[in-house]
Amino acid sequence: MKICIKDSKVFKDSIIGYCNQALLSVYQAKDHMIQFKWVALSNHSRDFQEIQGFLKFSVQLAHSKDKQTTLEKEEGKAGGMVV
After folding, report:
1. Count of CB atoms within 10 A of residue 7's CB?
2. What digits encode the pLDDT tens for the residues 11-24?
3. CA 20 to 30 Å from 72, out of 18, 29, 35, 57?
4. Which residues are CB-contacts of 15 (< 8 A; sequence separation ≥ 6)?
């Protein structure tokens, strides 16, 4: 899975950076879910080795026959999640 973060306010849809997450690692995790994972964002059109920012995300993969699990809120943090 490739995640692309864009800045739509400064320059129209300018790309801040990308990160990749293997779907197999998500599906093999408990409840087919990874929560509150920090990843570094890089941008191939700039210096690939330079970190452009960080992203914390949660993801769950579920088949229609899988038990549905609710993503939890991070302890000590207010607010919900945006997908």
Report:
1. 13
2. 667 888 889 999 99
3. 18
4. 4, 5, 6, 7, 43, 45
